[in-house]
Amino acid sequence: IRWTAGRGWHDAQLTPYAPLSIDPANMTLHYAQEIFEGLKAFRRPDGTVATFRPDANAERFQVSARRLAMPELPVETFIAACDALVQQDKAWVPAHGGEASLYLRPFMIANEVGLGVRPANEYLFIVIASPAGAYFPGGVKPVSVWLSENYVRAVPGGMGFAKTGGNYAASLLAQAEAARQGCDQVVWLDALEHKWVEEMGGMNLYFVYGGASGQKPRIVTPELTGSLLAGITRDSLLRLAGDLGYETAEGRISTDDWKRDTENGTLTEVFACGTAAAITPVGSVKSQGAEWVQGDGQPGEVTMELRRALLAIQTGTAEDTHGWTHELG
Ligand code: PMP
C-alpha cells in the first residue's frame, strides 16, 4: 500500500514475493525512517487459522509512526493487509500441534528520493510472511544474559518505545559483547543510572517473587518508561497471570535488587517474553562485576505455567476470554 502527501493511502496490492527496486537516494537508506511489527498466525485444532492480537500490533505501529514522523496507517487497513496475506498463504501455516506458525512482518519505509533531512512525502507499507518453526525444538532451554553497562539501547526522549530499525542497529554491538562474555542475550539498563532493568534484546522481562509458605507468587515487570518497547506478549501476560490468580505489578527493578533478591531466595524465577519465543526462562546472569545462577538454573514452574497458558490461547486449545484471537477461517 502506498502513501503520498495530499492523497493518503492508496494502491493496495497483493503481489508475489519479489525484490524491491530502490533508488540509491531513497530517504530511508540515509535517514532511517522505517518502522515494523511482528505477529504470528497459528493453526487451530479444527484446521482454521487465527492471528494473535493484530489490533495491538496495528496500534503500536501507529505509535511508532508518530514518533518517526510517518503517516499513521488505519488499524483496519493494517489488519486487512495481514488478513489478505494470510488468506493467500494459508497453506504455509504449519499444522496444529506444535508451536510453529506463519510469522508476519508488516513494515513501512519512506519511499521518496532526496538528500535533505525531513519527513518524506511518500511511503510504502508492506507485509511479508515466513513460516517459523518452534523456537525451542528440543524443549524449552533457559538463556544466559549479559547486563549491558557499556551501551544503552534508548534514552529518555528517544525512540525506545517505537519499533524502528535504528533501535536494533544500536543493539548489535551490545549483543556481540554479550556473546563474547559467553551469554546468549543482552539485557538493557536505563540510560541515566545504568542500573534500572529495562528489557532483553528482543523481549520484555518478568520477575517472579515468593511463593513460599503456600502463597501465590507475585509477578513484576519493568514499567514502561518510554525507552523500552511495550510488548504485546508482556501486556497479555499481565492479564493472563491475573486470571491465573497471581498478583501482578509494573515496577522498577535495579540490577542490585535482582542479585540480592536472587541470593536471598525471594526472587525465584526470571523470564523473558515476546512474539518469537512466547516465554524464555532466564537461567543465569552476568555483568562486569557479578555472575549468578537464576534459581536452580532450570525453567521455573510459574514460567512454564504461563508459557503453556499463553500458547494454548494462541493455538486455539484454550478458551480465549479476552478476544485476542482473530479468526480467519
Ligand atoms: N522488546 C523488543 C526490543 C522487541 O523487539 C520485542 C519483539 N517485538 C519485544 C520487546 C516483545 O514484544 P512483543 O511481545 O510485542 O513481541
From TrEMBL:
| Catalytic EC class | transferase
Which top-level group of life is the source organism from? Answer: Bacteria
Q: Does the keyword Acetylation apply?
A: no
A single Gene Ontology molecular function, please? Answer: transaminase activity
Q: Could you say which cofactors this protein requires?
A: pyridoxal 5'-phosphate
Which keywords does this chain's UniProt record carry?
A: Amino-acid biosynthesis, Aminotransferase, Branched-chain amino acid biosynthesis, Pyridoxal phosphate, Transferase
Provide the family line. Belongs to the class-IV pyridoxal-phosphate-dependent aminotransferase family.
* Name of this chain's protein: Branched-chain-amino-acid aminotransferase
